[in-house]
Amino acid sequence: MIRRAGLALLLVAGIAVGAEAPPWEKPDRLARDLFLENCSVCHELAKPKSSKIGPSLLRFRKLPPERARPFRVYVMTFIRSGTPKMPAFAGFLSEEQIRRLADYLLREK
């Protein structure tokens, strides 16, 4: 009896771990995962100084909201087209993913 209860508890815990995030958390989670998978290798988001290859992106989060809107297009262009030191992600990420990533970078903490 105790063995069955333990097995049932493990099954329920396994289902809970594999459950999807609630809809209100999903966009942030997807954007964060995009950043971690594609940008965090070269860029830091939480520290003002970066020891990585690329510059820290913390400054994007410090922008006042009225400046962040026009800057969003600039950030999306950088992600899409790249720079001499940064690869272009246009062929790798969809437009929706690029938009989410720019929104995530410009979001206030």
Q: Whole-number radius of gyration?
A: 19 Å
Q: Which consecutive residue ranges, at least 5 long each, have pLDDT under 50?
A: 4-18
Order of helices and strands: HHHHH
**How would you characterize the largest beta sheet?**
none
Features:
mainly alpha, 5 helices, 109 residues
Care to describe what's here?
With 109 residues, the chain is mainly α. The chain is built from five helices and no strands. The longest helix is centred in the N-terminal third of the chain and has 17 residues, at 2-18. The radius of gyration is 19 Å and the shape is globular. The N and C termini lie far apart (49 Å).
Brief sketch in words of this structure:
With 109 residues, this protein is mainly α. The protein has five helices and no strands.
Write the layout of secondary structure elements.
Elements: H1 2-18, H2 26-38, H3 58-61, H4 65-81, H5 95-106
